[in-house]
Amino acid sequence: MGMWLFLFTELLLFGGLFIVYLIYRVLNADAFLSASYELDVTMGTINTVVLLVSSMTIAMSITAIQKGDSKKSIQLLGTTLLLSLMFMVIKYFEWSAKISHGLFPGLDLYKSLPPGEALYFFLYFIMTGLHALHIIIGAVIIAVTMYRTRKGLVTADKYTLTENAGLYWHLVDLIWIYLFPLFYLIH
Amino acid sequence: MAPRGSYLDLFVSLVLPNTLKTMAHKHTNDDHSENHEHHIVSYREHFSTLIALLFLTVVTVAISVFGASLASLSVFTAMLIATVKVVVVAYYFMHLKYDKKIYGWLVIIVSILFVAVSVLTAIEYLNR
Amino acid sequence: MASLSTNVNYFQAKSGIFSWIFSVDHKRIGLLYLYSLITFFLVGVTLGLLMRYELLNPGKDLLEAKTYNQIFTLHGVIMIFLFIIPSIPAVFGNFFLPIMLGTDDVSFPKLNLLSWWVYIIGAIMALSTLVFGDGPADTGWTFYAPYSVKTGTNVTMSVLAAFVLGFSSILTGLNFIVTIHRLRTPGMTFLKMPLFAWSLYATSWIQLLATPIIGITLLMIIAERTLGVGLFDPSIGGDPILYQHLFWIYSHPAVYIMALPAFGIISELLPTFSQRTIFGYKAIAYSSLAIAFVGYFIWGHHMFTSGMSGTARFIFSMLTFLVAIPTAIKVFNWVATLYKGSINVQPPLLYALAFIFQFMIGGFTGLILGALATDIHLHDTYFVVGHFHYVMFGGTGFAFFGALHYWFPKIWGRMYNIKIANIAFTIFFIGFNLLYFPMLIAGLMGMPRRYYDYLPEFHLPNMISTYGSWVLAVGLILMLGNLAFALFRGRKEVGRNPWGGITLEWQTQSPPVVQNFDRMPELPKNGPYDYDNKPTIND
Fold first, then answer.
1. Residues C148-180: tens digit of each pLDDT
2. Between chain A and chain C, how many beta carbons pairs sit less than 8 Å apart?
3. Shortest Cα–Cα distance, A92 to chain B (Å)
4. Residue C200 to residues C52, C90, C209, C212: CA-CA distances in angstroms?
5. Which of the two residues, C133 and B103, has the higher pLDDT score?
6. Reported ipTM
7. A159, A77 contact by CB (below 8 A)
8. Mean pLDDT of all residues in C327-332
9. DSSP classification of residue C490
10. pTM for this entry
11. What does each C-alpha distance from A156 to A35, A56, B15, C188 come to in angstroms?
12. Separation of alpha carbons C503 and C97, rounded Å
């Protein structure tokens, strides 16, 4: 229950940003639309798929530990970790492409943007940035779970850590499920 | 419910007599056993859930890429599909289907609260 | 090594500073909060007295304008984030929630300790703004954009401090929710919980769900200040009013974080000092939840003059009036509890009665502010300052001190001097009302708030108010001094139940043993305030 409650706080944390997005999109609908063409739908879709698969693998890791198969649980957790790495790599490419074009708050191209578009990109970086931070935190939690499973501290009778890691990871997935259409699929 | 700050374990042993430690430990066990009924979801069920989610993703992208003329409708549809995906993740991957009902209710109430606050803010802007 | 020894109370268990600041015992953590809270409260009081001194006469008496702005900002940050919001939950919730539920600690004792440490770190951060750079923020505790983005004072640090303090609040709320759901003693259903527990439950949900929003909002301010371009800047399509929306979406529910636990305290004090059951237990319990829920949707009443749409103003005003209903239900039930009770006039009861009087004034003035037309005249005047001090200080503050007088013998196993406590209360009460009632008058006359100077026509209310602040200070010092003295020289042997209460803490020793109960707690037969069937408690 404690983890669910913590997830609610994360939901509201991102929720604040979603409210800002909502309002500014209402106020700057056209600007948001034209700005969104800068984003690569293919990369976004791949990232979506990556996270969905990683949600499956971590859910499966819970099944594995419930069945007492620690080895498989660790493997599945490891797969989840690799997928999260893949997500971060793709994100890195997306970000660096934009930054090299000067499309980051403080850089040249950004400063010359029309008003609504500047907001779009500011929100893009803050929201995907905060999301990426949570991916990193989630990855750390998964790594800790792997370690403790290997040490025998997580077993078929006591796998609350794995469950909590799973819940946290699913939240990271959930946020992306909303971020994706809101930023990439406006048109 | 892994308590946070396991580095504090050191200090726990400094200040608590042994009996209290076992009592504190008992709490986490209680949480554990009440939380789920040891129901094991099969690998197959998880895989099916993924297929459903991937399908929804394809639909969402397709609508956006191919249905550009229905701009405002596609926003609504995209959000709708996203919400369905979220419900699927919560219900299956996050185990709400098999958990005690209270968890589902809490998720619903919190979601309603958030949506209502967002809508109220939007109403403010839309009526200027 | 002693096993479940019934002779070891929680003071005696382990000694030395490290056994306290690294303790996971909810009782010790409650006291850690108490001592730190009172310290910060006194800093906040000092700032308040400085402000009142400046306002004694028109013209500059002591402070520059900017310094005055910094002082009222820091006063607000300290009083709200370091004192009132944690106060009752962190001190009395921590100490007594597990005991009232018949259990031996909260669900996550280590998280509880972390909450306190995070609180201390946030407090140090907030106070550090006094000593470096251009001094504390001068924006008001509300940190409105665009000024908060542009000013050179230590806004970033203040805001970061508030962010950190938010975590403490969230973790406490999380801990209490799980504790209430999971650790109630067998036989204690939700509807047999004491009302203090109900109020903490409702409060915890607000702490959990509302605080993250201000967390992210404050991060946005920091982003604007550090990255140079921001979300509330009209030149890039942003809207400063959006900041106000986000800020108040938390900060209005936050006032219910302040008020609900206070309501819970009053619901405990009145049955004990009338020696009868509370009137309308379910109504009070459910109204706590109702207030928490409706409270999320009325934040706009802080923004009536900001430039919001007319539709929104109408909706927010209407919903604001709605939240008054469950609050009024509580007040009626409290008064009905006193009716035909066997009234025992003791300091805790005095604070409870003062609460009812002062909270009602605060509540009624709130309704006046909640009505659109009157708010146009009164927004940002001293009427608002009077209003919120009546509810937050005259309400929650008095409830806090009432709780302190009520549970003092239980916590420390000593009794304070009742006569001095009564005298201190009287001075405190008179001082409080002398200090804040004139503010309502000054506001009606049109005096703006957050000004270090004023027109001569506002001199009289300001003078009375400042004298009132000195009377209040005397009462406060006497009250706290009396209690502090009792810590060392108070009469011992107070027994388990000096006031004749009926909730479970009165079955424990005074002070309680480490694991709280030396005997299995006995639940009253027909609900938590079943005075007709009081369990016999032998020392």
1. 888 888 899 999 999 999 999 999 999 999 999
2. 88
3. 22
4. 34, 10, 14, 19
5. B103
6. 0.90
7. no
8. 95
9. S
10. 0.91
11. 50, 19, 31, 32
12. 11
pLDDT value, residue C534: 79
| Residue C511: cis peptide before it, omega within 30 degrees of 0 | yes
- pLDDT tops 80 at residue C229: no
Choice between A114 and C460, residue whose per-residue pLDDT is larger:
C460
Tokens found for residue C238: 């942003």
How many CA atoms are closer than 13 Å to the CA of A26, on its beta-carbon side? 17
User: In chain C, which residues have their Cβ closer than 8 Å to the Cβ of B123?
Assistant: 309, 311-312, 315
Residue with tokens 């030149």: C235
Cα-flanking dihedrals φ and ψ of residue C520, to 5°?
A: -60, 130
- Give first-to-last CA distance, chain B, whole Å: 47
Which residues, other chains included, contact C364 with Cβ-Cβ below 8 Å and sequence gap of 6+? none
* Widest CA span in chain C: 73
Say what the pLDDT of residue C470 is.
97
Task: Measure the CA angle with vertex C450, ends C444 and C455; round to 5°.
Answer: 60
pLDDT at C533: 81
Cβ pair C24:B8 closer than 8 A:
yes
Per-residue pLDDT of C3-12, as tens digits, reads 455 678 888 8
Query: Which two structure tokens, joined as six digits, stand for C341?
Result: 């009770």
Give dist(CA C503, CA C195) in Å, integer.
10
CA distance A103 to A109: 5
* Gap between the Cα atoms of C238 and C375, Å rounded: 27
**What are residue C415's DSSP bridge partners?**
C491
Name the token pair of C463. 């003078």
Assign 3-class secondary structure to C262-299.
HHHHHHHHHHHHHCCCCCCHHHHHHHHHHHHHHHHHCH
Residue C490 structure tokens: 């108070």
SS3 of C455, please? coil
| Whole-number Å distance between alpha carbons of C157 and C70 | 14
- Left (φ > 0), alpha (ψ -120 to 50) or beta: where does C237 sit? left
Estimate the share of chain C in helix, then strand, then coil, as percent rounded to the nearest 5.
Answer: 70, 0, 30
Q: Are the beta carbons of A164 and B1 separated by less than 8 Å?
A: yes
Determine the residue type at A37: Y
The verdict on a CB contact (< 8 Å) between B64 and A167 is: no
